[in-house]
Amino acid sequence: MADFDSRVYESIVINENDVRSIVLSYLVHNCFKETADALLTGIGMQKSVDCLSDMDKRKAIFHFALEGDALQAVELTEKLASNLLEQNEDLHFDLLGLRFVDLVRSKKCTEALEFAQAKLTPFGKSPKNVEKLEDFMALLAYEEPEKSPMFHLLGPEYRQSIADNLNRAVLAHANLPAYSSMERLIQQATVIRQYLHQELGKDGPPPFTLQAFLKS
């Protein structure tokens, strides 16, 4: 590998329009409509119909999933992006799983079992979903499921991951980027820094972490 000299990049000028586009992409991806509108107005950028279309509906879907109201999230998704969940059975299963988990959390074990039999078992053709279903059902074996080995299914991080996947799927269904420009830049930076760290060892930059970058 040729010697790496970071000084060759010091003279690169960052285009302000690129920065604005990155920020706007992040705001649109995460449904910050008011802030996106303010940014567009403040810098005089022309509003794109594709950019802001259905953002309120997508935001509602995201928050319903995030709060565990999976049935409402499914209903709104079917209205906004017809056939999306039919074409993505794994995502559909994950959303229905949130409903099961919510019933378990509310100590409605009988209702949870009936829901699993009616709504989750039809997805049993997939080995991956069978494994997930077994994890869900394991929660019923504990009086305090939050202390079970499957406790992570009850946590906000699990709901966040499902909500993020749903948001990306809805964006992709509308032919919009499933990942924001900022996410793609961080992914690229992470890969590059890891590669340089492996190639150059102690003389190279440390692996990229967002926490360290924000402190720099």
UniProtKB/TrEMBL annotation:
Matching InterPro entries: CRA_dom (IPR013144), CTLH/CRA (IPR024964), CTLH_C (IPR006595), LisH (IPR006594), Ubq-SigPath_Reg (IPR050618)
Residues covered by the CTLH domain: 54-111
Lineage: Eukaryota, Viridiplantae, Streptophyta, Embryophyta, Tracheophyta
PANTHER family: RAN BINDING PROTEIN 9-RELATED
Signal peptide start-end: none
One Pfam family in the UniProt entry: CTLH
Name of the protein: CTLH domain-containing protein
Annotated source species: Platanthera guangdongensis
